[in-house]
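Provenance

Sequences were taken from public entries as deposited. Structures were produced by running a predictor on each sequence independently, with no templates supplied. The record for O-antigen/teichoic acid export membrane protein from Actinoplanes auranticolor is shown for reference.
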Amino acid sequence: MTRRDGIGAAGIAVTAAGVLANLLAYVVPVLGARLLTAADLSALATLLAMTAIAGVASTGLQIAVAVHRARLGPSPATRSAVLTVAVTAGALLAALPVAVLVLRLPALATVLAGVSTIGVVAAGRWLGEMQGDQRFLPLAAGLAILAGGRYGGVVAGLALDAGLTGSLLIGAATAILVLPVLHVLARRPGVVPVGSPVAARAVLTAGTATLAMLVVSYADLLLARRFLPFDASGAYAVGTVLTKGALWAPQVVTVLALPRLAQGNARTLRLALALVGASGLVLTAAAAAGGGLAFRLAGGPDYASLGRYAPVFAATGALYGLVFVLINAQVAASARWPSGPLWIVTAGFVAVAWLALPHTLAGIAFGALGAAAAALTGTTVLVGLRLRRAVIDRQPERGTLSIG
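Predicted structure for O-antigen/teichoic acid export membrane protein:
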């Protein structure tokens, strides 16, 4: 029988792991802003965005395994994990050379970022097993260990003044070395997977939804790299630290809620949206009150003058935080094409940025805020339609019970 960790201790532990992961993720661009040239900082931010997008295969694998285990108990996942890693590696082999040419990225640094991504993707299988079993304390340890491997090496490299390529080399090594530790952490002696295996289609659906989420939320950073001068795109990268802070600060809510969402708990969805929305409001208000300080903390005193844009970046992240909850709810409910609205918004945002938006920091930032609002509207409509259909489907059953 699955042992479920207490929700209070679990929340504290997962929150602490999330804080550590986000802290390490933020330290990378913060150190980069102080120790790298503007060109290398922009390249680092772009590579982090690209690897985050490619790394959604890890999140897709984790979500699919977690949802499957929450519903059916311990189930085989090796085949789906191997297939996910193989597909990701093939996609990186095809995409990275194009990225080097189009985005003017250093070739070796780009390859090393790809190696690190493979390690992160492989980790998703073991994280999903712990999450689906609601073993949140080991999951918190696993998240912290993975964060150390994913970002800790890069932070160490930057602190040692190893430069862009040297830092990414250390990061690639640490991302691979943590995998055996996660495997041991996820093991449950005496428990044999007996259920149906995790379907590759479930991984694809979850991965596609998460990919759409990250593509739309990182599109502005990539557009800034494409359309702005190096110094302006570097400044925009500092602003996106605030966006990602508002997006990922309440991620513990989604982590804890996912297994219960997979079991059809509607109250959990309402509570998750309320908590994430409140977090977004607080962070956006804080950014509005102390924008200059926020930019100073994120990138140093050279960027403090951009503080007037801080609430725009924070509000964008806050809206995407709500979208992330709704997308996970759709995946947990086995909805078809949950990522549809996000792909539409992404295409529209790119087209508008290419043809109409001013190619300035403010122009792209406000365009990103509009895209976030559109994404939230589309996913809310989709979830509302699904819930309405669920109510209609249950009505005949209720009628039968009341007559009997």
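Confidence is low (pLDDT under 50) at residues 397-404.
The chain has one domain: 7-397.
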